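Extended Data, panel c. Modelled sequence:
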Amino acid sequence: QVYLVESGGGLVQPGGSLRLSCAASGSIVSINAMGWYRQAPGKERELVATITSGGSTNYADSVKGRFTISRDNAKNTVYLQMNSLKPEDTAVYYCNADGQYYSSGYPRLFGSWGQGTQVTVSS
């Protein structure tokens, strides 16, 4: 299978910045889209940003102009630079990726989630 491990969460004051990272590992053939989602207490998980293997990006309206998603295809890693953070950005942030991996010598499709990393924006 393919495993995703996030890092970079923490506590930050309003207006501050954080950078999240998510590294994929396993018998990866290729990764198509990678993305970040978040889930606040009592709310459903929502899309934050996605990026294709070609670099096309998509953002939730609530983070446009403040967050930037990027990826390093050689490292199978996706990043989320978060600036001008607001208390309403507080949530558990999850990494997601889909693509192909080797299983028993054959390429198969995968879709994986990371374990999540907590981001808290508070004074």
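The first strand starts at residue 2 and ends at 7. This feature is highlighted in the accompanying rendering.
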